[in-house]
Hints:
Blueprint: E1 5-17, E2 23-36, E3 41-45, H1 52-59, E4 67-72, E5 75-76, H2 80-83, E6 87-91, H3 102-112, H4 117-130, H5 146-158, E7 164-168, H6 176-191, E8 195-199, H7 203-209, E9 212-217, E10 220-225, H8 227-234, H9 239-253
Parallel strand pairs: 3-8, 3-9, 6-7, 7-8
Antiparallel strand pairs: 1-2, 1-4, 4-5, 9-10
Amino acid sequence: MGRSLSAKHLIKTFERQEKGHKKIEFHAVDDVSIDVAPGEIVGILGPNGAGKTTLLRMLGLLIEPTEGNVTYGGEKTDDVSRMKRYIGYLSGNTKLYGRLSTSELLTIIGNIYGLTKEEIEERLAEITKLLSMEEFVDNRIERLSTGQTQRASIARCLMHDPDIYIFDEPTLGLDILSSSAIIDFMKREKERGKTVLYSTHYLEEAEFLCDRVILLNHGRIVREGRVPELLKSCGAGTLREVFTKLIAEETEVTP
C-alpha cells in the first residue's frame, strides 16, 4: 500500500548573479502546497524554468526547502535517511554505473537497503519481468539503449518497494515502446495503491495517465484539478489547450 505525500507552503530561494556582479535572490518555488493520496497519479506540468524539478527534489528530500515542510503518511521528514526508504526517485540526470549489469546494480541496491539474499533474488526476478528486461538484464549498462537504460534506472527505484514514486521526466526522449512500458508501470503501481508524482512535457501523456494535474509557472501553482474539470473550466478540448491558455494568461499578468 502507498503512503500519502503532503507539502505545505514550500519555498526554495536561490541566488543568481545579474550584470554588474550584483546578486539577487529569487524564489524557484514560491509558496507551493500539495497533497497526493495513495493510489493517485498526479502530474506536475509547466514550461521550462517553472520550478518543477526544484519542487520534486524537495519532495524527494534531495534538497531542503528554504521554508515549509513535507510529510509522508503524516510523518515529518526529520529522519531523512529513514524517510528516503519510502521514496523511489527518478530524474533524467540519474547516472548509473556503466560497467555493471542491471542485475549487478540491483543486487548492490538490495544490499544497501538490507534485503536478504533470498529477497534480492525474488525482487530481481519480479522487477525483471515487470519491466520486460529479460533480454538485457545481464548486459553492461553502458551497452544498453536509451530506453533500456531508463528501464534499468526505474528498476533501481523499485528494489526496496517504495510507497511513493517521484519521477522527473521519466519518458523524455524515449521511443514509443519504451514510453509505453514506463506508462504501464505507473498505472500498475497506482492499482497497487502506490503514490505517484511525476513531471512531464508530454501533455497528451499526462491527459491519459493522471488523476490530477498541477500547473506551475514562475514557481507558483497556476491551476490544479482533474483533467475533465480543467477542460470544462477553460472551455478547452485538450490539456494542451488548457496549458497554452493558462500560461498565456499568467504571462500577461506577470511583471
